[in-house]
């Protein structure tokens, strides 16, 4: 493996890891603050990708499509939270797992009804269609760099909101002691609705950003969900910082695994997770 | 052991058993031409009931929600598929112990890792281990990749050269699965009533207290995990015999989710509930599949509604009928409290060994 190829893989791993972070951050926030395991998170990623595909076809413009798709995703999260999760907060994780499992079936089938079972793709949007030449015969697509940049900005924004704003203080306090926050006169229900909608919308947004990079298939949400679970478990459930470094680690592992150790590639991330759990049963940053 | 449940439960279970045993008498009259087909369906339901019962030992009795139980189901199926000779039938005398050994060994290794975790970590790590095997099997050419492996001959059960029973005969296989389910049910009932079961119950309610009482709780949990995995492995082997193949889908986490739904739909922690749940789930599935191509939407909605309004499942309705005690609102409300109550009714023991029953806190 020469240096240029190594560099491309490194960039790929970094970009994929950042995309994973977008999805995993929502997952870890929803669990850390609301105590809800959301299995339907992967389905939202899939729906994001399909929304991007559908609206791009209708409107002829990827950016306009995203501008419309994001509010749709937020709205969907809002409806799901208000309709189904309201009664689940006090229940055992078991019921959350099952209810969101039921949601997966519904959302996956809804996708099939609306968009069918075909594989779709979205063209690279202007002005990021080009590629940067790394060496004479190696190029790197600009859109991937753009996605990485957007993810980095969003990661920074999430970190800043949680660390340095009043809303962030309430969120952190709510994660530690829900009753106390309520006792201080803060409406935790509104906060929950907000967190869930934004968390789910982050997953959908990741799906939209990924749409031009990978093929859009009916089962795409399932595999990404499991990968993000691994990320969250490695980083420590509820920890944004953990999700960030966990996502980068898994992004690198998924990119370099097939090249360096092909025989173990398909189970590499699970091996890493098992190893982390052996050393730190609650994750790296918990 | 049955007499500790209210009479209506015992009556219902025995009636169900009698109905199944007598299927050859009434099946053809009711279903006519498709009677044989329905018997194969019933056989599958029995197999899934066995699978659901095994998971109940973890979820209902021990309070550990596993989202990777299909790992052991699939392991049983693949063990049969890989260990069967190509051109003759394997003997069940060594196939059954082999399947139990393999699933038990893997469960011991996986258990040592996952039992270090609790609550949501347990859910996620079991899920991850299930997927680990799923991806290994579906990418390896040795196990036939995504196509799976076909099983040319069902294992036979013979004494020396003379065959004891003919497992290739659908009716015989149906009775064989039924007998296995009844046996496992009775064993698990005895197990939950034993001192061992009491300790598991105690761990469910308050593990720290059990540790303070001097129990090595991890050992108990590991044994329960291994036993549960062995039963699931046997169920997987039976399923592979019935289908005639082992397939990665049998290992996938969707399958784990389905069996978890059977346990909840039936009523967890009761052992008999998940059997009812498996039948109810499969019947609903069959009904929905015939109703529309988009049956997953109906199944998904059913799951959502069941979780919202029927947290204690069918067994909860039987043990604690709506009109009798709890109001609907009460049942909709605190899940954990009601569960603890349900478990109390089902486990009101005479030997006075029940430990820490009132403490409902389980760290999440």
UniProtKB/TrEMBL annotation, chain A:
Pfam families: BPD_transp_2
UniProt keyword Magnesium, yes or no: no
Protein name: Branched-chain amino acid ABC transporter permease
Keyword Translocase attributed: no
Sequence similarity: Belongs to the binding-protein-dependent transport system permease family. LivHM subfamily.
Cellular compartment(s): Cell inner membrane
Keywords: Amino-acid transport, Cell membrane, Membrane, Transmembrane, Transmembrane helix, Transport
Entry superkingdom: Bacteria
Stretches that traverse the bilayer: 16-40, 61-81, 142-162, 190-211, 223-253, 259-279
One GO BP: amino acid transport
Organism annotation: Halomonas sp. RT37
GO cellular component labels: plasma membrane
Automatic annotation (TrEMBL), chain B:
GO cellular component terms, A-Z: plasma membrane
TM annotation in the entry: 42-65, 70-87, 93-115, 127-153, 173-191, 212-239, 259-285, 297-319
Coiled-coil annotated spans: none
UniProt superkingdom: Bacteria
Mode of membrane association: Multi-pass membrane protein
Main subcellular localisation: membrane
Protein name: Branched-chain amino acid ABC transporter permease
Organism: Halomonas sp. RT37
Species classification: Bacteria, Pseudomonadati, Pseudomonadota, Gammaproteobacteria, Oceanospirillales
């Amino acid at each position: 493996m020469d240096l240029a190829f190594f560099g491309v893989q490194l960039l790929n791993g970094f970009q994929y890891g950042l995309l994973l972070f977008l999805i995993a951050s929502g997952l870890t926030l929803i669990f850390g603050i609301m105590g809800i395991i959301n299995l339907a998170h992967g389905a939202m990623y899939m729906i994001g990708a399909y929304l991007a595909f559908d609206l791009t076809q209708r409107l002829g413009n990827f950016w306009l499509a995203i501008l419309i798709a994001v509010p749709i995703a937020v709205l969907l999260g809002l409806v799901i939270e208000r309709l189904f999760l309201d009664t689940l907060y006090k229940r055992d994780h078991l019921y959350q797992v099952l209810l969101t499992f039921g949601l997966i079936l519904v959302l996956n089938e809804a996708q099939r009804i609306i968009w069918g079972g075909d594989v779709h793709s979205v063209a690279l949007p202007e002005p990021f269609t080009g590629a940067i030449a790394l060496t004479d015969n190696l190029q790197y697509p600009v859109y991937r760099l753009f996605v990485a940049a957007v993810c980095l900005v969003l990661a920074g924004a999430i970190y800043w909101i949680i660390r340095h704003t009043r809303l962030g203080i309430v969120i952190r306090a709510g994660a530690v002691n829900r009753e106390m926050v309520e006792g201080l006169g803060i409406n935790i229900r509104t906060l929950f609705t907000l967190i869930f909608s934004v968390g789910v919308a982050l997953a959908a947004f990741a799906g939209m950003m990924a749409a031009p990079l990978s093929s859009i298939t009916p089962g795409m949400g399932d595999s990404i969900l499991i990968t993000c679970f691994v990320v969250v478990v490695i980083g420590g459930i509820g920890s944004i910082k953990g999700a960030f470094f966990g996502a980068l680690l898994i992004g690198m592992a998924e990119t370099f695994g097939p090249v360096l150790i092909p025989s173990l590639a398909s189970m590499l991330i699970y091996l890493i997770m098992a190893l982390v759990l052996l050393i730190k049963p609650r994750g790296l940053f918990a | 052991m049955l007499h500790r449940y209210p009479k209506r439960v015992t009556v219902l279970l025995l009636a169900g058993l009698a109905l199944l045993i007598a299927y050859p008498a009434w099946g053809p009259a009711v279903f006519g031409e498709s009677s044989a087909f329905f018997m194969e369906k019933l056989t599958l339901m029995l197999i899934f009931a066995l699978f659901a019962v095994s998971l109940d030992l973890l979820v209902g009795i021990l309070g550990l929600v596993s989202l990777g139980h299909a790992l052991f189901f699939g392991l049983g199926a693949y063990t049969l598929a890989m260990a069967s000779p190509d051109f003759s039938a394997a003997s069940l005398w060594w196939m059954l112990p082999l399947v139990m050994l393999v699933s038990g060994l893997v469960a011991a290794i996986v258990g040592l890792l996952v039992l270090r975790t609790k609550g949501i970590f347990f859910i996620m790590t079991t899920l991850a281990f299930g997927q680990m095997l799923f991806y290994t099997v579906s990418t390896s050419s040795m196990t036939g990749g995504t196509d799976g492996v076909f099983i040319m001959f069902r294992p036979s059960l013979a004494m020396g050269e003379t065959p004891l029973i003919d497992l290739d005969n659908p009716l015989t296989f149906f009775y064989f699965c039924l007998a296995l389910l009844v046996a496992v049910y009775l064993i698990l009932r005895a197990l939950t009533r034993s001192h061992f079961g009491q300790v598991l119950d105690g761990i469910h309610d308050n593990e720290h207290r059990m540790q303070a009482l001097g129990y090595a709780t991890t050992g108990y949990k590991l044994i329960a995990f291994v036993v549960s995995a062995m039963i699931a492995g046997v169920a997987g082997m039976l399923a592979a015999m019935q289908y005639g193949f082992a397939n990665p889908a049998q290992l996938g986490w969707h399958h784990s989710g389905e069996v978890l739904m059977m346990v909840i739909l039936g009523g967890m922690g009761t052992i008999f509930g998940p059997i009812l749940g498996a039948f109810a789930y499969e019947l609903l599935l069959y009904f929905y599949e015939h109703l529309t191509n988009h049956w997953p939407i109906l199944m998904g909605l059913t799951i959502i509604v069941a979780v919202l309004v029927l947290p204690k499942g069918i067994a909860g309705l039987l043990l604690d009928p709506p009109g009798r005690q709890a109001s609907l609102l009460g049942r909709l409300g605190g899940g954990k409290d009601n569960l603890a109550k349900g478990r109390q009714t089902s486990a009101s023991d005479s030997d006075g060994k029940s430990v820490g029953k009132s403490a409902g806190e389980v760290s999440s």
